[in-house]
Amino acid sequence: MALFRSLMRLIKWGVLIAAIIFAIHCWLVAKTYMFTEESVAALAKKHVGTTDIKKAFSQIHQEMLKKHPGHILPGEDLQWVFMNAGGWMGSMCLVHASLTEYVLFFGSAVDTVGHSGRYWANISDTVITGEFRQWKEGELTVNIHKPGETVLHVWGEATGVNFKAGTWMLEYGRGFIPSTLGFALADTIFSTQDFVTMFYIFRIYAKLLTMEAGHYVTHLQEMFQ
């Protein structure tokens, strides 16, 4: 009898989790998004071939501030932080983030290689400088992506990745973004133990979520006035 009750509890939890996942998936499919892969890629492609990546990122940031006021992290709050995940090491700068989207600057000043991770999100990277090599699961050859090309990492996909020194990109993610944090922080927790960097990541993400929540509350107030 005890075994039967335990089995029933397990089934109930399984059904509940499946229902939550299904509800989130339906929400992701039905909702309206602020960005598109094409619009983000177009911003990056304006700066392909640049010899001053800092200036390029600054100009992209300014253009996004004008196009999406109140949804982009202001210049004084931008922060480059290290990111260790899947064996590779890079640096990122979050520009926009919500529960379902993010835009960030990403790259590495040194050669680095590792696992891409599997995500409940589509992620696209448009290369501005350098070279991004992607080895897809099940294939025996590598795809080499040069400046101006956009690399798509779809839901549930896993690849081997190799960022050559001096590779810098504009990245856009769309999906259930909190689900990506496990992979993003695993190396920090179990390998580098760089908890200062983890604090920076949570602080920036929390700040951006607060900005988005503020817009949502304002929108609701306007609806009921």
TrEMBL record:
Transmembrane segments: 12-30
GO cellular component: endoplasmic reticulum membrane; nuclear inner membrane; nuclear outer membrane
InterPro entries registered for this protein in UniProt: ERG2_sigma1_rcpt-like
Location of this chain's protein in the cell: Endoplasmic reticulum membrane; Nucleus inner membrane; Nucleus outer membrane
Highest taxon above the source species: Eukaryota
Keywords: Endoplasmic reticulum, Membrane, Transmembrane, Transmembrane helix
Family statement: Belongs to the ERG2 family.
PANTHER family recorded: SIGMA 1-TYPE OPIOID RECEPTOR-RELATED, SIGMA NON-OPIOID INTRACELLULAR RECEPTOR 1
Protein name: Sigma non-opioid intracellular receptor 1
Organism: Capitella teleta (Polychaete worm)
